[in-house]
Amino acid sequence: MKTIDELLADGVAGKRVFVRADLNVPLDGTTITDDGRIRAVLPTVKALAEAGARVVVASHLGRPKGAPDPAFSLAPAAARLGELLGADVTFATDTVGESATSTVAGLADGQVAVIENLRFNAGETSKDDAERDAFAGQLAALADVYVGDGFGAVHRKHASVFDLPKKLPHYAGYLIATEVGVLKKLTEDVKRPYVVALGGAKVSDKLAVIDQLLGKADRLLIGGGMAYTFLKAKGHEVGISLLQEDQIPAVKEYLERAEKNGVELVLPVDVLVSPEFPDLKAKAPTHFTTVAADAIPADQEGLDIGPETRKLYASKLADAATVFWNGPMGVFEHPDYAEGTKAVAQALIDSPGFTVVGGGDSAAAVRTLGFDEKASSGGKFDHISTGGGASLEYLEGKTLPGLAALED
Ligand SMILES: Nc1ncnc2c1ncn2[C@@H]1O[C@H](COP(=O)(O)OP(=O)(O)OP(=O)(O)O)[C@@H](O)[C@H]1O
Ligand SMILES: O=C(O)[C@H](O)COP(=O)(O)O
């Protein structure tokens, strides 16, 4: 994979450089609630602008349906990028139309523009190769060089990620180079004990990675919404907790294989339960109780790991040489159910091992709970990945279209 340093060494002054970023940030209306993904692409954009390139930044945001939708405009992200760069960033109100063409033509050396959401065009995400290729051709007309730096989207076979780099000289940006460098350490020559903590809500998305990790990790700590499918597979009542019934046979097989392979698969011993899901907007106090994980009342829902589990998981993380954590341990958006996620975040910070947090929601969780890469309590996470699905698919050992295209 050629990196941006080679491009800079060759000289980029006056060249139009297309930077495929992942500016898919969480929004509350037009307010960005976590700008981590914008900050992550700054080194690449700054280096190119300082070298006199005419920088065209492109990204998707959310999942619009292949047509313009103001709710998914990249305008707030473009404004934030300008603030962080301390420079004017022009914004094109379309992607390959008149606004984009004239905006790019108007760029002076060292200036930066953002074009509108790539997914406002059906060609971006199309399953039809010819349709994607045609859209990639239109994007290619906007630039002389391609820099891939949207790590969070490299697992998508989309026009701007997979087809466009084939049409232009292509390089990996600093973020992709860093992310791949870190995740490689978790797949090759990993330092042991290697402990993986998994939570969150997307159980079916994460089963494939559990399948792979059973051959790689020494210990798997399961929390969040996915824990209840495991508890149910062990024959326990889970009440009205999040459950993926169709995954129970697979989970039973994982429990058996973990035992056979000598992998410690650790489940919650106690959980916080409530008769109803909390209101995440009002955040009003809820009625919850702590119960043993094998005694969840039939009319209640598990919403966080309990105090004994927090201690147990912290002890299982204390001697880890390598830790990968994906997915919050509970409904951390509500203060009543944030303690499990906080405890695991703190255990990673206290860990002397190499610690990586992966996942859009997990990264947002640690930052909104007051932790970040430079957490003040003496330690820090070694790396917070900007990719959720992307980092998991990388760990699964899958070929990621956006990385393969940069390697060609
Ligand atoms: N016990 C639970 N019941 C229901 N939802 C839960 C529970 N525990 C955690 N969650 C929810 O899981 C969500 C995050 O899960 P997700 O799988 O999306 O995480 P992620 O992998 O970090 O994010 P992404 O896949 O977007 O990168 C949070 O919104 C949280 O409220
Ligand atoms: O949020 C993410 O994981 C990336 O931005 C990819 O978004 P997608 O899942 O909508 O393709």
UniProtKB/TrEMBL annotation:
<feature type="binding site">
    <location>
        <begin position="359"/>
        <end position="362"/>
    </location>
    <ligand>
        <name>ATP</name>
    </ligand>
</feature>
<keyword id="KW-0067">ATP-binding</keyword>
<feature type="binding site">
    <location>
        <begin position="60"/>
        <end position="63"/>
    </location>
    <ligand>
        <name>substrate</name>
    </ligand>
</feature>
<dbReference type="GO" id="GO:0006096">
    <property type="term" value="P:glycolytic process"/>
</dbReference>
<keyword id="KW-0808">Transferase</keyword>
<dbReference type="GO" id="GO:0043531">
    <property type="term" value="F:ADP binding"/>
</dbReference>
<dbReference type="Pfam" id="PF00162">
    <property type="entry name" value="PGK"/>
</dbReference>
<dbReference type="GO" id="GO:0005829">
    <property type="term" value="C:cytosol"/>
</dbReference>
<dbReference type="GO" id="GO:0006094">
    <property type="term" value="P:gluconeogenesis"/>
</dbReference>
<keyword id="KW-0418">Kinase</keyword>
<dbReference type="GO" id="GO:0005524">
    <property type="term" value="F:ATP binding"/>
</dbReference>
<keyword id="KW-0547">Nucleotide-binding</keyword>
<feature type="binding site">
    <location>
        <position position="119"/>
    </location>
    <ligand>
        <name>substrate</name>
    </ligand>
</feature>
<feature type="binding site">
    <location>
        <position position="302"/>
    </location>
    <ligand>
        <name>ATP</name>
    </ligand>
</feature>
<dbReference type="InterPro" id="IPR036043">
    <property type="entry name" value="Phosphoglycerate_kinase_sf"/>
</dbReference>
<feature type="binding site">
    <location>
        <position position="206"/>
    </location>
    <ligand>
        <name>ATP</name>
    </ligand>
</feature>
<comment type="pathway">
    <text>Carbohydrate degradation; glycolysis; pyruvate from D-glyceraldehyde 3-phosphate: step 2/5.</text>
</comment>
<feature type="binding site">
    <location>
        <position position="37"/>
    </location>
    <ligand>
        <name>(2R)-3-phosphoglycerate</name>
    </ligand>
</feature>
<protein>
    <recommendedName>
        <fullName>Phosphoglycerate kinase</fullName>
        <ecNumber>2.7.2.3</ecNumber>
    </recommendedName>
</protein>
<dbReference type="InterPro" id="IPR001576">
    <property type="entry name" value="Phosphoglycerate_kinase"/>
</dbReference>
<feature type="binding site">
    <location>
        <begin position="22"/>
        <end position="24"/>
    </location>
    <ligand>
        <name>substrate</name>
    </ligand>
</feature>
<keyword id="KW-0963">Cytoplasm</keyword>
<comment type="similarity">
    <text>Belongs to the phosphoglycerate kinase family.</text>
</comment>
<dbReference type="InterPro" id="IPR015911">
    <property type="entry name" value="Phosphoglycerate_kinase_CS"/>
</dbReference>
<feature type="binding site">
    <location>
        <position position="119"/>
    </location>
    <ligand>
        <name>(2R)-3-phosphoglycerate</name>
    </ligand>
</feature>
<feature type="binding site">
    <location>
        <position position="37"/>
    </location>
    <ligand>
        <name>substrate</name>
    </ligand>
</feature>
<comment type="subunit">
    <text>Monomer.</text>
</comment>
<keyword id="KW-0324">Glycolysis</keyword>
<feature type="binding site">
    <location>
        <position position="156"/>
    </location>
    <ligand>
        <name>(2R)-3-phosphoglycerate</name>
    </ligand>
</feature>
<dbReference type="GO" id="GO:0004618">
    <property type="term" value="F:phosphoglycerate kinase activity"/>
</dbReference>
<feature type="binding site">
    <location>
        <position position="333"/>
    </location>
    <ligand>
        <name>ATP</name>
    </ligand>
</feature>
<dbReference type="InterPro" id="IPR015824">
    <property type="entry name" value="Phosphoglycerate_kinase_N"/>
</dbReference>
<feature type="binding site">
    <location>
        <position position="156"/>
    </location>
    <ligand>
        <name>substrate</name>
    </ligand>
</feature>
